[in-house]
Amino acid sequence: MARGEVEDAEGQPIYCFDLVMFNKTPSGAHDDRGLVLKAFHDNTIRVRCADGTTVVVKACDVTVVDRSDICRSTAVTSTDESSGVVTGSTTALDLVRLSTGEVVARGVSPSEVQRDGELRLGDYVVMGPWLGQVVKVCLDVDVRFDDGAVCRVTQARTNLRTLDNDLSRGIFYLGQRVVGNNSSVFEENIVRKAARWLKGRPNSRKDEEGTVAKVVVSGVLVYWLASSHLGTERTPLFQASAPPACQCNIQNLTLFNCSGYAHLMHQVWVVGDRCVFRDVPHFRGRAVAGHRASSNNSASVAAESLCVANTHTTVDVLWQDGTRQYDVPSTSLASLTVWNQHEFVPGERVIRRDRDDGPHLGIVQSFNFKDQTARVSWFQASKQGEAEETVSAYYLDVSSDHHLSYGSVVVLLRPTDSSPFREDGEGEAQSGKEDLSWVGKIIDLCDGQYIQVKWGNGNTSKVLLQEIAVVKPQSIKEMLQEINDSRSMGWANAVTQAVIQLIGNVIAQGKRYMFSRSAAVYDGDVDDHAMEAAAAVAPESDVRGRGSAQQGNTEADANGGDHKSGFPHFDVQQSPPDHHYLNNMAEQGTGGGTKWIKRVQKEWKILEDNLPDTMYVRAFEDRMDLLRVAMVGASGTPYQDGLFFFDLQLPPSSYPNSPPLVSYRSYGLRLNPNLYESGTVCLSLLNTFGGEGVELWSPTASTVLQVVVSIQGLVLTSQPYYNEAGYAKQVGTPQGRRNELPYSENAYLLTLQTMLHLLRRPPAGFEAFIREHFRRRGQHVLRACEVYLTDGCTVGTLDGEARPTEVSTERPCSAGFRLALGNIVPRLVEMFKEIGADGCQ
Known about the structure:
alpha+beta; SH3 type barrels; UBC core domain-containing protein
């Protein structure tokens, strides 16, 4: 739900999972408040009450009273548009009986209760020195029928369905009404073992309703994330040493409580959640106003599930400017669903890669979103006085070696023969309980040398980065897939694959070394670090094709360069040695047959007759299955005057039943959500992105021309931020406006870097074209840079002559963008002078 779509009676934006109070009780509602499930365009919202009833009401008839889903590690923004990260959260629960609605207790801490069922999907668990995450839960449910008979049903999620309109979120709870999914569920079957009668006889139970009397976790599937001895790197030794993924006796597992963390939404408490007290005797001392606590009362509480009827949440926030605020009401904040790539919070470890003396590691002290600048303390300053400085955010990337964030799960590394970690004599494993002193959560990053961690045994300490291993969050789907792959492959095969991968990495490093050496010979001014990054994603054929590219440049210089008219939009040549699909041997173009050849020739004719002025295509007579496409970035976009190259293959074995294969020449840069560093092009027409109808490839109606025109028109757009999946709904919203400009600024900077890469390492066959393009348009590129630097115009709003338009002054570009642009312009000037660009001599 995007910000600002609907507002409550007080003008407060309403989001999914907000707790709202009805200003007047709607028809069908049994409570005075409920949880927002969905907002509609007619300013109405769907709300679910604690008892499961669902009502649709006008947004102006409710008031937002709590946001319990704003929890630790959540990125948030305030009413004054400040942004930060939640470093701590406190939620108090009011509990009622499901059967009567009677209030049982108020202000209950989540630590005092637990959901029905000992473990849930996504829970972190500990077994000896191993930390894992539950990726699958098997539930057995005891169903009591009205005649007193009791049946235990295994695989309950498959064999039972609920009758109540509840908020259990896939979990069965005591007192819930259920029925079998089919007539045979309650029949004792030795083969299926779906049911076992504990009391009474099966009889005929078809469509007979029952009540959940007990919920038992019969087994779980665990993805092992880390070991206190082996860390988090999934080496063959790690995989061979890990416990079995399938754990049938959950008593061997100890829950590591991560309650209140954003990446574990199932552990966030909301109205309608079912629970039981962890310690019923403790409850006996908790009297509720107007209710007398007694042993009988506590016994009845233990016999049935309770329901969360109200929540009250406050949070602690670390703002991007470095200030902290405590006990902030959750309703004064909103979750940020999108955190920009170059947006940071204090304490994050970052890498600066634009320095001539190599990457620098630092820690962010503060961040200014409006200016897109960060104050960074460097761990090793290259010059005196540079220990701390303000830099452009576009220079920085989060360190891939330090996956640190507030709420990150970490393990303390210790030798195999060491005793359990203790602090001041505390933290020793208690008898019968698992030692949790080595697994914890990051609660503070702001110390440049130390990281503050709260351990599973309740202790808090500061540790050095090298003393811990950080668990990188993964989706349940990814972890399940890896478990299934490892089962099918076997550990022995896994070791073999690891060795093969190691050999491949060594060979790849050798190729990159050879490539960077050859680049240094041909282009003495090449940025070595940028070249290494580009070589890391370049195909093997790039290494072989470097000589022919240089030869082409020499020939162009000798002839004085080709003019625009001398480079046709479509032509047929010999295949280049650096084509991405050149060595795709399984799809060689010699066995396509007459029908395929005619289709390819038809595609050539369509391209030759209909290409736009900003697009150039080369086909190859010796490899009819290959094409190379160049397109010019349109004015009024962040890609203005840039060149973008794509290699295509029309596989004889599958084309045209399947769309062409397309690879973008990225040079290791991702300047668009649809264009990946790996070269992948995300487009519905290529079946690499979701779509329907005419958006998808049609063997009879779709053409290569349609593909390349779609890339230019739908991908290289004026607002590329909204190309990201699901972001289109943010158009016109505050969150969309917040993020669209930084994305465009970064896209423009990457477009300029791509220009430099193309001039240094042009794709074979287009050497003369690239030089001629920048001879003609180089002055316009520099003029655009000057307009951005001096006038602060909005990126991607200039006309074809790089002059401001009516919308160019609506939103000035950021100071951080101008800092980064000022750094790259001298390199552009030097390169344009080298090729004799107009107006740059």
